[in-house]
Amino acid sequence: MDLKGKIAFVTGGGSGIGAAISKQLDQAGASVVVFDLNEEAKEITRSFENESLFTKGNVAKSEDVNRAVEEAMNKFGRIDILVNNAGIFRDKKLVDMSEEEWNGVLDVNLKGAFLIIKKIAPLMKQSGYGKIVNISSVSHKGNFGQANYSASKAGLVSLTNTAALELAPEITVNSIAPGSIDTPLFRSMDEKGKEKFLKKIPMKRVGQPEEIAQAVLFFSSDASSYVTGTLLEVDGGLTTG
Ligand code: NAD
């Protein structure tokens, strides 16, 4: 895919799936803005071939989002691609889940994407071009111990569809539901949880972050010019049948 000259904004772009997405966007020729809560995420931009920007902040705070987008606009003057990838989980059975654990996950995984789309979509509309990709999860269908996470990821699919309707025709908005992907987030899951996923995967292995990044590249490029409001499951067959 050729993304030469495009400007991409990736949340949580310094680790795991986000790092693979940022790298592949850079390799395809885009300038990448990495927006991440973790200062160490800055490291990734050192390996980029194209001009890039690291900006630290919390996707769940509108003041951080607004400042980061303004920084990106001051440097590049345009944002063509937005990848809402930042996400966290705080697993617990729902009766044991605190209000803080519910709010914390919903704030990052769902409100964060809302705040960023709200800020960036008008800029994309103005330029007449935009590609938005939201990283949901196969857990959007509901998953034991993940009431907050699953609800946030289902919300993200719904937000994708509404945004696709409201932002057409200039902007396409699609979501990806990764299955079990080999990242720090997945590795931090308890062994029982990991085993449960592995048993159910027809392809008998976890996915690699690069395999999610390839799907992001499709939705970020003109190869997907007539695709909007869809959900692509990249899960080794986990949710089939
Ligand atoms: P990760 O923990 O490796 O990376 C997440 C990144 O997001 C980190 O760099 C972190 O600093 C950043 N981040 C966290 N909270 C933030 C905030 N409030 N503001 C800005 N940045 C923040 O996770 P990952 O496994 O690469 O997951 C990436 C996305 O993929 C998440 O949305 C996750 O829900 C989704 N996902 C992952 C898997 C999996 O198996 N790993 C499966 C399905 C979906």
Q: Keyphrases for this structure?
A:
241 residues, alpha/beta, Rossmann fold, 7-stranded parallel β-sheet, 7 helices, 42% helix, globular, binds nicotinamide-adenine-dinucleotide, 3-oxoacyl-[acyl-carrier protein] reductase, Sc_DH/Rdtase_CS, oxidoreductase, SDR_fam, NAD(P)-bd_dom_sf
Strand order of the largest sheet: 3-2-1-4-5-6-7
CATH class group: Alpha Beta
Note the total helix count. 7
Number of domain modules? 1
Low-confidence stretches: none
CATH topology: Rossmann fold
Main sheet, how many strands, which sense, barrel? Answer: 7 strands, parallel
Whole-number radius of gyration? 17 Å
Query: Kindly state the mean pLDDT as a whole number?
Result: 96
Structural class: alpha/beta
Report the strand count: 7
Any ligands, ions or cofactors bound here, and which? nicotinamide-adenine-dinucleotide
Order of helices and strands: EHEEHEHEHEHHHE
What is the rounded distance between the termini?
Answer: 32 Å
Overall geometry: globular
User: In the CATH classification, which architecture applies?
Assistant: 3-Layer(aba) Sandwich
**What proportion of the residues form beta strands (DSSP E)?**
15-25%
Proportion in helices: 40-55%
CATH 4th-level superfamily? NAD(P)-binding Rossmann-like Domain
